[in-house]
ATP-binding cassette domain-containing protein (Streptomyces orinoci), 321 residues
Amino acid sequence: MIELEGLTKRYGDKLAVDGLTCTVRPGMVTGFLGPNGAGKSTTMRMMLDLDNPTSGTVRIDGRHYRQLHNPLRTVGALLDAKAIHGGRSAYNHLLCLAQSNGIDAVRVREVLDVVGLTPVARKRAKGFSLGMGQRLGIAAALLGDPQILMFDEPVNGLDPEGIHWIRNLMKSLAAQGRTVFVSSHLMSEMALTAEHLIVIGQGRLLADTSMSEFIAQNSRSFVRMRSPEGERLRDVLSGAGITAVPAADGALEVHGEDAEHLGELAARHRITLHELSPQRASLEEAFMRLTAGAVEYHAHPNHQARPPEAGWGADWQKKGS
Ligand SMILES: Nc1ncnc2c1ncn2[C@@H]1O[C@H](COP(=O)(O)OP(=O)(O)OP(=O)(O)O)[C@@H](O)[C@H]1O
Ligand SMILES: [Mg+2]
């Protein structure tokens, strides 16, 4: 279990983490979400004592990180996969970590196997691709067989097979009763992996809730109805005091009513339906809605890629030709 209490970090006049109080519990994957610059990596660094909090505390199983005897055996983490000595082989990198933490060398081969790096174990890490480096970082996190695991953007650079693998790895670690804390920008991925969510924006806690509650609270659910008798359906709905909003493809969207009730209403009036589908808003939609006010770094619409005949692209082409 990881407990944060009033955790705060200030860099000059920038308040990176602002009084975070929450608990990351064992037996489930907890997703850590927030827009760019929200303070996720800073929080994780403070959890591992790599950064000193300005105020507040972090407790790992009731103790401060620095009080842990063999930290890698209690908490394994992947924060920055590039933080390795490039001249060392994957095997030697892990062996070095194992020896300094009282971990048997046999475990090095085991974790290399788990992450699929056995064939390149003797190759120098500096020649590794992004995904291979990420796998090596995950191997280091697993090395001490810790009860607590922390991953900062672990699927960065992984191919679809790798993403699938890490999703199942995290779920199985959680199913073994471990605490798994993972940050990610891939909302669709989080929706498949995490059971609980902690969401921050500009360093402040925005939500600490189960995935299903988070989606239900922060997004609209509605029912899509499509009928060859669209006009009549709309009249019937309106006669029952139900507002239907036409969608671009000719379907109707109804908010605040369940699909069963709408289906029965249509049946009573003998209206054929080609579609009656409850729409659950995605985690991505819920996240965007919740963090809309806390996004610091916006892309400027004028700077998006444009076809060459439009805007500055055309000027640039003229100047370049
Ligand atoms: N060492 C540092 N010195 C000064 N400011 C820092 C430092 N580290 C982080 N910050 C600032 O703290 C804020 C939070 O950064 P952090 O890296 O924790 O965000 P994040 O949520 O991990 O973002 P991302 O999703 O982009 O990884 C940012 O405004 C960042 O510029
Ligand atoms: Mg980060």
About this structure: Residues 40-41, 152 surround magnesium ion (ligand 2) (CB under 6 Å).
